[in-house]
C-alpha cells in the first residue's frame, strides 16, 4: 500500500506537474483557501485529473510542503477489490499519515471518487474532525451533487470542466489569439485549427492523435467506457446493447428535436426507460437536452426538447457518420453557450431561432450565400427580436458571409471574443 501511495504522489519526490493551463484553473485557485469541499465534475477524459494536479502544483508554488498533499486516483485497478468497502479509504488515509507524517493542514485530492461506494461517509467524517481540505473529481453529476448535498449541504463548491475550449486548443497549438491584432495576423492558422476542432472536438487525446481513424477509435472507446463502466453497472441495466445503440443513433440526430414516442417504439423500450436512459446520458455529460423558450417555467419543462452532444467529436461516432457541417457548427455553438448561460433555450413560434440566452438571440448557419437561407435566418431574428425586445446575432462558418440587416460574426471569431 505504501508503494501505491508513493507512486501516485510523485510530487513527494520533487516532481512537478506541467500541462496546458485550463481556463478553470483560476477558479480552483480561488477556491483552495476556502473551507468548503471542492468538487470538479466533467465527462471522462476531459482533464479533471490534470486540473487537480495543476492545483497541486499551485499549492507547491505557494509553499505547501509536498507531503501535506495526498492524491489518490480511485479508478486504478489496485483498488477494485475494495470499492465496496468505504472503510478502506480510512485505511489508505491512516497509511498516508504514517508514511508522510504531514504537519498542519492536509490537502486530499480524491480522483474519480464515484468508484468507491459510500465515499461521502469518509469525506464527511474527516471534514468535520480534521484540518483537511478535500478536492474531489467525478464523472457523474447527480452522484456528486446528490451525495454531497445529503450529508454536507452548503459545504461544497463545484467546478464544472468541459473538454478543451477553442481558446484552450489554440493555446495548446501555440497560436497567438489573445487580442484583435494577433487574431488578424494568425487568421489562416486559426481557421485551419477551427476546421479540425469543428470536426473532432476538444478531447486532448483525440485532437493530438495522428490520424482520423485513430481519433474515431478513441472517441468510440470513450463513449463505450462511459456506457459500460459508468452507466450499466450503476443502474443495473440488463439490455446494455440497446443503451449503446440508442446513444449512437442520437449522435446521428444531434441538434434535432426528440420524439420520445418514436424513439421508444424504434428501440422497443418503454417511454419511462427511454427517458431514464437520456437522464443517464446527461448525468455522465455525454449529451444535454435544450428546452423551448417560454415565459412560464412549467411550460418550458413540458416543452419538446432538442438534443446536443457535449463534445463535437462524438458526432463522428454516429450510426451514420456525416460531414454535415451545419449540424456540427450548431452543436459547437451550443457547447459554448452552454458553458456561459444558465438559462439557455431555443425559440419557436411561426419562425425558429436556434438559441436564446436571455440576452441575445442566436441563429447559426454555415453560410449565408443562399438567398433563401439568408432571408429565413434574418426574418426569424427580426420576428423574435420585436417580440422579446432583444438583439440578434447570426453566427456563420464562412468568413465571407455578411448581411446589412443584422450583425454577422464567424463562429471562430465569436468563440475567441468571449
Automatic annotation (TrEMBL):
UniProt entry tagged with the keyword ATP-binding: yes
Residue span, AAA domain: 35-170
InterPro entries per UniProt: AAA_14, DUF4143, P-loop_NTPase
UniProt key word Nucleotide-binding: yes
GO molecular function terms noted in the UniProt entry: ATP binding
UniProt organism field: Candidatus Thiothrix anitrata
Keywords: ATP-binding, Nucleotide-binding
Protein name in UniProt: ATP-binding protein
Alphabetical list of Gene3D superfamilies matching this protein: P-loop containing nucleotide triphosphate hydrolases
Residue ranges constituting the DUF4143 domain according to the UniProt record: 229-355
Signal peptide annotation: none
Amino acid at each position: 500500500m505504501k508503494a501505491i501511495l508513493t507512486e501516485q504522489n510523485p510530487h513527494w519526490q520533487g516532481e512537478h506537474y506541467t500541462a496546458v493551463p485550463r481556463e478553470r484553473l483560476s477558479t480552483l485557485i480561488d477556491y483552495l483557501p476556502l473551507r468548503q469541499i471542492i468538487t470538479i465534475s466533467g465527462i471522462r477524459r476531459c482533464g479533471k485529473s490534470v486540473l487537480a494536479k495543476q492545483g497541486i502544483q499551485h499549492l507547491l508554488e505557494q509553499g505547501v510542503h509536498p507531503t501535506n498533499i495526498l492524491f489518490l486516483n480511485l479508478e486504478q485497478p489496485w483498488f477494485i477489490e475494495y470499492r465496496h468497502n468505504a472503510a478502506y479509504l480510512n485505511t489508505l488515509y491512516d497509511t498516508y499519515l504514517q508514511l508522510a507524517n504531514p504537519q498542519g493542514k492536509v490537502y486530499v485530492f480524491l480522483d474519480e471518487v464515484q468508484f468507491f461506494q459510500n465515499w461521502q461517509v469518509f469525506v464527511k467524517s474527516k471534514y468535520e474532525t480534521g484540518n483537511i481540505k478535500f478536492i474531489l473529481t467525478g464523472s457523474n453529476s447527480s452522484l456528486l451533487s446528490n451525495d454531497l448535498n445529503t450529508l454536507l449541504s452548503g459545504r461544497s463548491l463545484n467546478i464544472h470542466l468541459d473538454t478543451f475550449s477553442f481558446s484552450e486548443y489554440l493555446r495548446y497549438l501555440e497560436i497567438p489569439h489573445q487580442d484583435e491584432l494577433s487574431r488578424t495576423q494568425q487568421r489562416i492558422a486559426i481557421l485551419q485549427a477551427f476546421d479540425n476542432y469543428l470536426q473532432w472536438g476538444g478531447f486532448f487525446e483525440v485532437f493530438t492523435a495522428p490520424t482520423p481513424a485513430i481519433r474515431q477509435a478513441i472517441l468510440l472507446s470513450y463513449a463505450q467506457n462511459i456506457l459500460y463502466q459508468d452507466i450499466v453497472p450503476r443502474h443495473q441495466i440488463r439490455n446494455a446493447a440497446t443503451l449503446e445503440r440508442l446513444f449512437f443513433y442520437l449522435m446521428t440526430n444531434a441538434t434535432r428535436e426528440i420524439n420520445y414516442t418514436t424513439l421508444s417504439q424504434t428501440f422497443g423500450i418503454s417511454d419511462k426507460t427511454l427517458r431514464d436512459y437520456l437522464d443517464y446520458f446527461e448525468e455522465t455529460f455525454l449529451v444535454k437536452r435544450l428546452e423551448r423558450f417560454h415565459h412560464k417555467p412549467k411550460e418550458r419543462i413540458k416543452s419538446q426538447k432538442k438534443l446536443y452532444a457535449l463534445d463535437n467529436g462524438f458526432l463522428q461516432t454516429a450510426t451514420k457518420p456525416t460531414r454535415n457541417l451545419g449540424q456540427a457548427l450548431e452543436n459547437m455553438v451550443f457547447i459554448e453557450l452552454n458553458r456561459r448561460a444558465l438559462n439557455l433555450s431555443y425559440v419557436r413560434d411561426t419562425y425558429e431561432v436556434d438559441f436564446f440566452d436571455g440576452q441575445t438571440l442566436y441563429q447559426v448557419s454555415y453560410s449565408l450565400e443562399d438567398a433563401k437561407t439568408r432571408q429565413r435566418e434574418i426574418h426569424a431574428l427580426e420576428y423574435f427580436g420585436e417580440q422579446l425586445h432583444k438583439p440578434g446575432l447570426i453566427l456563420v462558418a464562412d468568413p465571407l458571409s455578411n448581411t446589412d440587416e443584422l450583425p454577422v460574426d464567424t463562429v471562430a471569431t465569436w468563440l475567441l471574443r468571449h
